[in-house]
Amino acid sequence: MSDNEIYDVAVIGYGPVGQTMAALLGSAGHTVAVFERWPSLYGRARAGHIDHEIMRIFQSIGIAERLEEDMFRANKYVFRNAEGETLMTFDWDRDGISGWPSDYIMYQPYIEDALDDKVRDLTSVNVFRGWEAASIERHTDHVQVEFRSVHFIGHHKVLGDDARTVRAKYLVGADGANSTVRAHIGSTQTDFGFRETWLVCDLEPLEPLDFGFDNGQICDPARPHCLFQLGKRHRRFEFALLPGESAEQMNDADVAWKLMAPYGVSERNAKLVRQAVYTFQSKLADRWRDGRIFLAGDAAHVMPPFMGQGMCSGVRDAKALAWRLSLALRGIGGAGLFDSYQTERAPHVAALIGMSIEAGRVSCTFDPDVAAARDEAFRRGDVPPPAPFPHLTGGLLGADSGTGVAGTLAPQGRIATAEFTGRFDDVFGASWVLLLAPGVAGHLDAQRTAALEHLGGKIVTLSAPGAGGEVVDVDGYYAAYFAEHGLAAILYRPDFYVFAATSDPGAIASLVDDLEAKLGALVPAEAVG
């Protein structure tokens, strides 16, 4: 496209969140321009964990199997005190409802490489590197951004003489914690008050390394630290900076080797591929949208790493916003379509920030007396277990009807059709899905069927093995889910969250009516035929 044409969406920032946004929108056929100041992919790990929901999103992009080749499936993540006692454990030894193992530990550059390959295969997406947003202008039907060329000498940015102007119907700021887009829309941030500085050391082992305790936090007041496998070919250590220590002195490689020496790690058996000092913060943007301009990822929120949910939350943002943008670009949806983006995502992220802070407080204690009291409280059982993982509590959700599943993640099990046996989404994709329990006969009239089809939605009736249906619930996974919750049907969204559900087979049509009421008219009457 030329600069005189209008893109559907412009994205500023090409980290995992911007990449995911571009891949989702481009796969839906929308024209996308992505601008990134850095000349190449970052190439070093920052995030180290994803969960089953994020793998399902990556599955919808078509890269999940590639990523799984290097990911390490972790069974648990343990917090121990200085004496080696277990204080608390995150149990990951299960499969998630999304059809993938509960949790993975991964090496972020491999994710960025896979996303980049996917984006560059999409002819409707253009990626521009070496450009920085200089000004943003809002118009009635589009956003105009002027970019300046930049290059870097080391980490020092140098502005170039070239400029270009780009217009897009919508603009997404996925440009990190120091977001230019956030500053432009005047969004302030709520600071949750957590601020700790840690040294991160990433290793490429030169021989097998086994520490007996490989994934968890060591809550030692002498120096809190953690270690974990970073995919199948890397490892990470993180060490809290003690009072009085500076980032400059901790960036010395000799300091890193000295800190890892008690674990038998040295230049003889490992290569130090990254050493960086980070200040972990906890902030949430107060406004995620201004008209046609949106925030996603670190531009909207940052959190401590103790729950491994920072990048995960940004990928969720991308998925939640991409399907809304796709509908709007097709002329579907009223004012509530975009209003619900922050209404849903901000409370979800705020809950994860709170959980991350609480987990961090267990570890980030330098006072031996405070640590001893903490350990005793855990021994007595006075510390409540971690809060349950949050789900959506508001926004674009239908009536709950007493089922309790609206706003939770929809299941993905294995199905069989005449041509295929495997995960559900590999047949039916990531779209609106009206899923009927095995044995439930649900029929929609022409108007409601047309409404779902206009959204790109599917109506899927499951059958038990041997019952002769077209879509077989081969493992009984769906039958167990519907029985557990007493459901006849669920209607779920392209980001896999349940919009609405019913236990009454006679009320299945009302799920579509509820959707139409929330979104606005879904399809003109003349389109029904």
Q: Which helices and strands appear, and what pairs or packs with what?
A:
Layout: E1 6-12, H1 16-27, E2 32-36, E3 49-51, H2 52-61, H3 64-68, E4 72-73, E5 76-81, E6 86-91, E7 103-105, H4 108-120, E8 125-129, E9 131-138, E10 143-153, E11 156-173, H5 180-185, E12 189-191, E13 196-205, E14 216-219, E15 225-230, E16 234-240, H6 247-250, H7 253-260, E17 270-280, E18 283-285, E19 289-290, E20 293-295, E21 301-302, H8 310-329, H9 336-363, H10 368-380, E22 414-416, E23 421-423, H11 425-428, E24 433-436, H12 446-454, E25 458-461, E26 472-473, H13 477-485, E27 489-492, E28 498-502, H14 508-519
Parallel strand pairs: 1-2, 1-11, 2-8, 5-14, 11-20, 24-25
Antiparallel strand pairs: 3-7, 4-7, 5-6, 9-10, 10-11, 12-18, 13-16, 13-17, 14-15, 15-16, 18-21, 19-20, 22-23, 22-26, 24-27, 27-28
Helix pairs in contact: 1-4, 1-8, 8-9
Detailed description of the structure:
The protein is an alpha+beta fold and 529 residues long. The strands form 6 sheets. Strands 1, 2, 8, 9, 10, 11, 19 and 20 form an 8-stranded mixed sheet that branches. The protein contains 14 helices and 28 strands. The two termini are 37 Å apart. Helix 1 (16-27) runs parallel beside helix 4.
The percent range for strand residues is 25-35%
Low-confidence stretches: 525-529
The helix tally amounts to 14
- Global shape: globular
Q: Could you give the count of β-strands?
A: 28
The major β-sheet equals:
8 strands, mixed
Mean model confidence by pLDDT: 94
Percent of residues in helices? 25-40%
Q: What is the end-to-end distance?
A: 37 Å
Helical/strand content category: alpha+beta
Q: What is the rounded Rg?
A: 24 Å
